[in-house]
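MODEL INPUT / OUTPUT PAIR
PAIR INDEX: 1
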Amino acid sequence: MSKLREAAGMAAALFASTMHRYYGLSQGLVARGFTGEIPLPPYVSRPVPRRFAVEAYAGILLLLLAQLWITWR
């Protein structure tokens, strides 16, 4: 029973220190003008080069063949 109390005490202390650090971080962000939004640049879709697609499919095929070889061995 004492081990359970010790574990609960350590968990509570860890939670309290984590919340203290979170409060300090959030206060620092507010002081610097953080509004809760992170603006991201617009997403631009680009085609995948053929070489990368061929390499990806070859790797997947190699992994599948290795899995089959290990399974049936």
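PAIR INDEX: 2
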Amino acid sequence: MNARNLSIGLLVVAALATSCKSSTEKDAAAKATIEKTLDPGVSVSVKDGVATISGSFTDEATREKTLKDIKATAGIKSIDDQSTLMQAPEIPSAEAVSIHADHQLNSDLKTILSAYPSVQATVNEGIVTLTGSIERNSLSPLMQAVNAAHPKKVENKLQIK
């Protein structure tokens, strides 16, 4: 009877040891399978059949498809979704963009160009065309000042000295 109890005990211990090992192996296999399909910036960890997802998805549709695929992965019992969605850059509304009328641009450019005697500007339907010549170190401040006048577009045809 003692030999039989000992054999049963050893079988139980062996079964427990094997099941723990296979759980770890199942988790590793599931993780490897999932990682092959993840988008950059998204990661997964798997423990005891629970897949924990973190990182950022570009959109909700991609996130939902990924979660569906993970649920269908062998060895996954549940998902702990800690992921987020990337914020789309905010596009200014038409009201937020201010483009000055030609007469306002001409007035502003007259003041700006008084500091740059070798530069001329013409305005046509909100488009400022710069001609003439300018020193390289003066170009950036000039362009900033012209853009601050709110033209639709600046065409730089300046010759740089």
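PAIR 2 NOTE: The mean pLDDT is 84.
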